[in-house]
# Entry
Amino acid sequence: MQALAPSPRPRPSHGPVPRLGVRLAGDGVDVAVLASHASAVHLCLLDVSPDGEIHERRVALDGPTHGVWHGHVPGVGEGQRYGFRAEGRWDPAAGFRYNPAKLLLDPYARGIVGELDDDPSTRGHVTERDASGTLVGDVRGPADPRDSAAHVPHSVVVAPRTGHEPVRRPHVPWADTVVYEAHVRGLTMQLDAVPEHLRGTYAGLAHPATIAHLKGLGVTTVELLPIHAFLTEPHLVAEGLTNYWGYSTAGFFAPHAKYATRAAQEAGPGAVVDEVRGMVHLLHEAGLEVLLDVVHNHTCEGGADGPHLSWRGLDNPVYYLHDGASPAELADVTGTGNSLDFRRARVVQLTLDSLRYWAQEIGVDGFRFDLAVTLGRGPAGFDPDHPFLVALQTDPVLNGLKLVAEPWDVGPGGWRTGQFPAPLAEWNDRFRGAVRQFWLADPREASHGRPGQGVRELATRLAGSADLFGHSDPPLMRGPVASVNFVTAHDGFTLADLVAYEHKHNEANGEGNRDGSDDNRSWNHGFEGRLENEEMTIEGFEPGVEIAPLRRRSIRNLMATQVLAAGTPMLTAGDEMGRTQRGNNNAYCQDGPLSWVSWDLSPWRKDLLATTTHLLGLRREHAALRSETFFHGRPRHSAQDAVPDLAWFDAAGDPLDHAAWHDPGFRVLQMLRTGPRAGDRDVLLVLNGALDTVEVTLAGVPGRPAHGAAEVAGSTAWELAWDSDWEHPGEGGRPVGPETHGTEGGLRPLLEPLSLQVHLSPR
# Structure
């Protein structure tokens, strides 16, 4: 290995700023890397012999030009491994952590190979193992002199990809969008219809069998958990676990190689990029959009005691948010040990460059921003006019994509649901809480004789959450589609577990069941955990036999509410088939059957899949269920008759009064949503959140004449399109009217306890 030679004092340049990254150019590569406080930076070209020995050649870079070190290096081609070494101050108390013994990843690397060993050399400061095997040391102590090259991942030169079909985006309108959150590996690992060598890969996700399921279900947009290159934290490796979710980014441009087929991995990072691009293309050909869950709020380097891999060694004061104190401490608003500093123009640039790369070169259709409040933090905290958020609104590459914010982080003032600017949509945690509260937490309390919370919060969420997303200039500009409505996501209980567990069961994570949320608002229906026979019916005689059908009805209530509410529904992969994690509500480190989607469908799971497909079909077929604009409770300007766009009624079919809205014991609600155009059918949702059977007089449509022979008390004849009491949607198709129910004075179906019905006006 060539030794580092003393470097002359850098000579700042004021010419044009080189384009960051390592790119093929002419007979070699152009190199540019940000290290604004460094005294010297070397490009390190790495060659690995068959016995694993690393041979390193170092090239001193010129600069800095506005903080960027750069140069042209001949004789370098695609597939070359490389890294950087940066010289400068080792002064941790002031935030400077330069250590040339540490090989650093290129923040702009298109390919990354290798793993991180939990070796003392991977830390910038001196560490040793304690009696438990944990690396310990003084983070402000001396720099560690041991070379890290053999124990850290390496960057790889990847040529621009050519020969792909042009990007043809499906461009699904927001009003028609149904998001399906999935894990590349977990979705197909147990899908027998996918060839074994493709399961758990990018190619497997785009296999015809996977696409057939997605298209048959009726989703439009696949949102993938992180596929940026990521690393597993050393403490998980020590426990024999892995970072399954991938929220530990090692590179914002390189795809995670382990999700590629073995053939692509062996062919090199360029082939991995090709497989990802091919996946996106095949999903587009099927009419499916692709969103990426991106983690730009922090990196895999963790806190100050974490590994010294890239950003920390190149420009720690610029990349990471610090508290401004002396000695300098990292300001952690993400709960991971570090937070990227979006007050810095170079951090904003890195993020925008990454987004454009994935949109233009890979072809993805949008992004879901993890802990997005961090990305909008300025000197005074979260700022909806932050330069990064302004860039998303104005950048010609990005502003036409689907952009979704997770509108919180763990820092001061971190909950910001509804406060992001258009065109961003947002995960609506208030929707999640309201739906779980109404269908699960309130009935759980009622079963013990305690009061619930009424219908007001749920009704607000069903109507699109204008209280959260209506604040804009001009008002109501964003519409209900800005609310991404979800009941479950990758973190938390699955839909099936919400109705079977009241307490988390995360023992397998090795953290003493301390991890994961305790605010689950779940209900086990009287018995904690899975039943021995989940196919039981009330005619059986086994213990707990009455619980199984009640749980299944609760799942259907939750699914229907998120699919049929105004807004953009998001399903979690496997919920449509009753996937369970056996009560684990934080399966971030479980790469196995516990987290993978199960495709072995028992009869009730087949019924649930058919039900979900039916509900999504109702949403797709009826414009009244796909609201682009907020409701006003009065006729639309374009309406040909004087009918309101939205109306609420009680069980007697009377308009809800003020007292009912504020009565915590009020549990029966009718929501009327009228068709926006001539010929569209009206939809009536009837919810019974009580523990008793309820007779309901179906509401008529104000301002619209009654229809045909079923005229009763001025009401509309309704067709029952679905009832959550049905195990399978094939049980339906019955019209609802006095002639079928034998009632007088109104249309009075009986609603089972805790059930939901969908009624359609006549054709």
Residues 392 and 510 are 40 Å apart (CA to CA). Residues 1-9, 707-715, 734-746 have pLDDT under 50 and may be disordered. The radius of gyration is 28 Å. Residues 603-621 form the longest helix (19 residues).
